[in-house]
Amino acid sequence: FRKFIFRGIELDKLLDLTNDELMDLVTCRARRRMSRGLRRKPMALIKRLRQAKKEAPPGEKPRGVKTHLRNMIIVPEMIGSIIGIYNGKMFCGVEMKPEMIGMYLGEFAITYKPVRHGRPGVSAAHQTRFIPL
């Protein structure tokens, strides 16, 4: 069982970091966003995640918390939580893992259905349209 290390810091130490110390570890885009402070909605989501973790029985996963905040950056405090991220149609349940720190919630709830291409060429249904005269 391998211990998770994020940019040279172990997970249990990551949880103790202040926001300023965490900012030094993430990418420039996330650092710029965090420097501008957390607004009311992201703080409310973190508060609800704390509540769900507290209510969960020991050794079990917490209940899912739904959100529309696709542009929120994942912080170490969210690790282990289950978040329902809205993709425009439904809420995709995603369990937060240590590897996700510094990424956006929206990266884990795809907003489109990937294309499944059929057989190449003209299908039998469409061949009847082009009848030579």
TrEMBL record:
GO BP: ribosomal small subunit assembly; translation
InterPro entries in alphabetical order: Ribosomal_uS19, Ribosomal_uS19_CS, Ribosomal_uS19_euk/arc, Ribosomal_uS19_SF
Range of residues in the leader sequence: none
Gene Ontology MF terms in the entry: RNA binding; structural constituent of ribosome
Gene Ontology CC: one annotated term: cytosolic small ribosomal subunit
Gene3D superfamilies on file: 30s Ribosomal Protein S19, Chain A
Family membership noted in the UniProt record: Belongs to the universal ribosomal protein uS19 family.
UniProt xrefs under NCBIfam families: PRK04038.1, uS19_arch
Name of the protein described by the UniProt record: 40S ribosomal protein S15
Species in which this protein is naturally found: Thalassionema nitzschioides
Lineage of origin: Eukaryota, Sar, Stramenopiles, Ochrophyta, Bacillariophyta
